[in-house]
Amino acid sequence: MKTYIKTVYILIFALGGVLQSCSEEEITKLPVTALSEDAFWTSEEDVRQAANALYGSLSNVGQIEWDALTEIMFSQNGPSVEISTGGINPGSSIVNSLWTGQYATIRDANWFMENVEKAGLSDTDLAQYMGQVRFFRAWAHYKLLFQFGDVPLVNTFLAINEGQVEPSSRATVLDFVLSELDQSLVELSSSNYTPEYGRVTKWGVMALKSRILLYEGTLSSDDSMLTESANLANEIMSGGFGLHENYTDLFRPEGEGNSEIILARINADLEGQYHSLGQWLGPISFHASWSIYTPTMALVERYPDINGEDIATSPLYDSETPFENRDPRLNQTIFNWMENVEYEGALFENNGTWLNFRKWIDPAETAEQRSHNDFIVFRLGEVYLNYVEAMNEVNGPSQDLLDLVNELRTRGGKGAAADGSDIVVPPIALAGLTQDSFRDIIRRERIIELAAEGVLYYDYHRWKLLDETMNKPAIGVVPLEDRTFTAPRDYTWPIPDFELINNPNLQQNTGY
C-alpha cells in the first residue's frame, strides 16, 4: 500500500498572503485552516504541513497539455489553442498562470525558509525539510527564466508593498537555480532520510539538475554543462532504479511506485479524490469521453518500423496497415484508428476524426472523471535519454550509448503482443552511425518514449524546431488546426500585462 504525503494548505492571515491552493484539476482537496503566525512553527508537525503545501506546485496530469504546444498533440482546450494558433499575448491564460503560479511557489518557499528555524528542529531534520523546499524554489525560478528570459530573482519573503523587484539576467537566475539544487542535494543526502513515496529525494534533485543542464547545454552548446548533465544521469542510473517491465502498465495505476519512478505526483485512489485524465484522453466510446488532447499524425509518423528504420525509407511499412511491423510503443501509445479496439473489456470505437491516446488510459475505470493515475515527474527512461543525448553531443556515438536506446526499445516490446507475449525488437546497429544520424535517432526516441508526459515542448524549444514544426497544420484522421509560430519572438513569452503595471522595473519582451 502506498504511503501518501498528507498535504495541508494553510491560510496565513497575519502575513497578508496565501499559501497556494489546489487548482481545479488537482484532486486532493483538504480543509483550509486559519492560523496566526504566532500559533505556528511550534513543532515538526507544523513544519511538515508547511513543507507539504509546496507539493501542490508539483506537476500533475494537466502538464500533458504542454505537449499540445508541439507538433505531436492537438488540443481542444482554449488556452493551449491560443498559443498553438499564434495568438500568444501578454493576457494569455497559460502565460499568466505560469507567471503567477511560479511566483506563488517562490513566495511560499521563502516564507518557509525564513520561519522554519523557529520550530527548533535538529540540524539534520531542518536540512531535510529545507532541501525539499529549496528544490521547489529552484524549479519555479527555472520555469520562469526558460519562458520569459530576464525575470525578478526573489529569494526573500516580500511584503505586499515590496513587489517591485528589478529583473535579474537570465544567466544570474540560472546560476542561482543550479546553486540552490547543489545545496538541496547536500541537504537531502543524509543517510537517515528515508522519505515516503512521492516526496523529493536527492535522486529527484539530480534528475531535475540533469534535465536543466541538458536543456541549457543544448541552448548554449556548452560541453561542460552537457558533461555534468551526463554525470548526474549516470549517478542516477547506478542508484538502484530499473526500467519497469511493461511500458503500458508504467502509466496505469498498477505501475505506481515501481523502480523506474524517481518522483511522482501522488493522486490518491480514495473516494472523492480523482482527476479526469481518462475522460480528457479517451474516445467518446469510453464513458462519453471528450478527446480534449489527442495525438497527431506527426507523432504517428515518428515511430519507426520494428527494426528502427524511419517509415519513409522502410521496406516493411505499409500505409494500409500502419500498425504492423512498427515499434511496439506505437500501439501502446495510440489506438489503431482504422479499427474498433476491444481493450481489456472496454470498447474503443473509431470516431473517424481524431486519433486517441492509449497511454495513460486505465480500462478498469468504471465511470467518467474517475482516474487516479499518479503523474510521473521524473523517471529512469528520461534519465537514460538525458545521458545518451548529452554524451553524443560531447563525444559522438558509442556502443554503450546505443545499448541504452536499444534497452528502451526492447522494453517497449515486453508484453506488447495482443496475447500479452513479448514482441522481439531487433537492436539498432552502431555501424555507420555518425553524431548527426545518432542525434536524429535520440531525438526521435525522446519524442516517442516521452509522448504525452508534458516535457516535449522543452525539447522542441531547445532544439529550435518549433518554428519548423508549428507552422504546419495539425492533422489527425482529418485536418484539425492551422498553426502559427513566429520566430524568434515566440521562443520568449510576453510578461503579463498586470505585472508590467504592478512593477515598472520590468520591460516587455521584444515583439509583444
Which structural traits does this protein have?
13 strands, 39% helix, 512 residues, Serine Threonine Protein Phosphatase 5, Tetratricopeptide repeat, three-stranded mixed beta sheet, mainly alpha
Q: Segments where pLDDT lies below 50 for 5+ residues? A: 7-35
User: What amount of the residues lies in strands?
Assistant: 5-15%
**CATH uppermost class of the domain at 55-194 and 471-511:** Mainly Alpha
Mean pLDDT over the full residue set: 90
Radius of gyration computed on alpha carbons: 23 Å
Report helical residue fraction.
Answer: 25-40%
Overall CATH architecture of the domain at 55-194 and 471-511 = Alpha Horseshoe
Strand order in the sheet with the most strands: 2-1-3
Report on the architecture of this protein.
α5 (170-187) runs antiparallel to α6, α7 packs antiparallel against α12 (380-395) and α12 runs antiparallel to α13 (399-413). A three-stranded mixed sheet has the order 2-1-3, covered by helices on one side. Strands 4-8 form a two-stranded antiparallel ribbon. The model is unreliable at 7-35 (pLDDT under 50). It is globular and about 70 Å long. It has a domain at 55-194 and 471-511: Serine Threonine Protein Phosphatase 5, Tetratricopeptide repeat. It is built from 17 helices and 13 strands. It has 512 residues and is mostly helical. It is 39% helix and 8% strand. It has helices at 44-53, 78-84, 93-115, 123-148, 170-187, 202-220, 223-237, 247-250, 277-281, 297-300, 329-333, 380-395, 399-413, 435-449, 456-462, 466-469, 497-502, and strands at 10-12, 17-18, 33-35, 73-75, 151-152, 167-168, 261-265, 293-295, 341-343, 346-348, 375-379, 474-475, 479-481. The longest helix is centred in the first third of the chain and has 26 residues, at 123-148.
